[in-house]
Amino acid sequence: MTELLTDAGPAPASLPNAPALRMERLDGPAAGERLALWVDAYEDVYAHALDLSDHNDPPIGERLERHRGRPGFELVAAFDGERVAGFLYGYTLPEDSLWWEGLTPAPDPEFVREHPGRTVGLCELLVGVPWRRSSVAATLLESFLAHRPEERAAALVTDGNAVVLGRYAAYGFTPVGTMEPYPGWRPHTMIVRSLRPA
C-alpha cells in the first residue's frame, strides 16, 4: 500500500530549510513495485563508491527485496516532481535478530535482547546531491519514526564518517559500539535512539 503522507508539501516549521516535496509511505509490496526507483537513487548517491563491498555485496536491490518481506517494513520517500529526492527504509527486528551480532565492546545481554516491538532497524537513509543541506534527511527520519510503535531505533554508520555521525547525534542517536555488518564490509558504528519518553 502506498500512502501519501499528511505532512506532504512544505517541511514542518521545525525544518525550515526543507524544500516542498511530496512524501510517500510504502509497505513491502508497494516498495517492491517501484524497486528500480530505489536502486537508481541509491546507485546515483553512491556512484563514487559502488566498488566497495558495503555497496555491492549484496547489491541494494537484493537487500531491499529481502528486507521488504520482513514484519514492520516501511519505506518513506521524498519526491521532487517525479525524481526521488531521498528515501529511508527499515523494519522491526525479530526476536532472533542477528542485528547486534559482533558488536564491540560486548554489550549487556539485556540491551541487545529483542522482544516483539522493541527495535526498528533503519537500513538506509539517503538524500540525492541536489537536495542536500535542506533538511530532507531530518524530514524523512522524523516522518518515518513518528509512526513507529517500537521502543527504539537503531542504525549503522560507516566508521570515521564524522559528518553523518554528527547529524545522527543531532537527531538524538547515541553510539553504542562498532561492528562489521556483513563479512568484508568496513567497520560501522551502531547508533541507537529511544522512541519513548524517558
UniProtKB/TrEMBL annotation:
Domain N-acetyltransferase residues, every copy: 21-198
| A GO molecular-function descriptor | acyltransferase activity, transferring groups other than amino-acyl groups
- This chain's protein is named N-acetyltransferase domain-containing protein
Q: Which organism is it from?
A: Actinomadura namibiensis
